[in-house]
Specification:
Blueprint lengths: L4 E5 L3 H11 L5 E5 L2 H11 L3 E4 L8 H10 L8 E5 L4 H10 L3 E4 L4 H33 L12
Parallel strand pairs: 1-2, 1-3, 3-4, 4-5
Helix pairs in contact: 2-3, 3-4
Length: 154
């Protein structure tokens, strides 16, 4: 089984390295980018299992990033954990409304972050097969292969 992948969208290289060091013992495949635009491109390209997102990014805001990720069928179900130094409740609420799944405040409690990362990855591992099965059912229905109760012989 391949390692679970995490995309870190963070403009502070020291914070990127800190997050990578925290996650290293779990052998995740980790990619980093420094802005939201590159984050969206990488998310579409890599389809990571989880995204760690800073709210304050050059160019695209964290909330806009979340909306963009949630608007695309290929990335809409990737869990997003906001890792932020902002104490603004307004910004946190905005990011949750935009599609973030959870948040961790800086300074980071390492144990708390790891628990949240592992919980989101477990959640994704459970929901991915269900979503694939739902898409399969939709495809069969679209192809006309559905045989509802009214079409069964009596």
């Amino acid at each position: 089984m391949s390692a679970e992948s995490i995309l870190i969208v963070e403009d502070d290289v020291e914070m990127q390295n800190f997050l990578k060091d925290i996650l290293a013992p779990d052998n995740f495949t980790i990619q980093t980018v420094v802005n939201g635009e590159d984050g969206v491109k990488q998310a579409l390209n890599l389809r990571p299992d989880l995204i760690l997102l800073d709210l304050r990014l050059p160019g695209m805001t964290g909330a806009t990033f979340c909306k963009t990720i949630r608007a695309d069928d290929r990335t809409q179900n990737i869990p997003i954990i906001v890792v932020t130094g902002t104490q603004s409740r307004e910004h946190l609420v905005e990011s949750m409304i935009a599609g973030a799944d959870d948040f961790v405040s800086k300074p980071i409690d390492v144990s708390d972050l790891l628990k949240r990362v592992r919980a989101m990855l477990k959640w994704k591992a459970i929901t991915d097969p269900v979503e694939r099965f739902q898409r399969y059912i939709e495809t069969v229905r679209e192809m006309g292969g559905e045989s509802g109760p009214s079409s069964r012989p009596r």
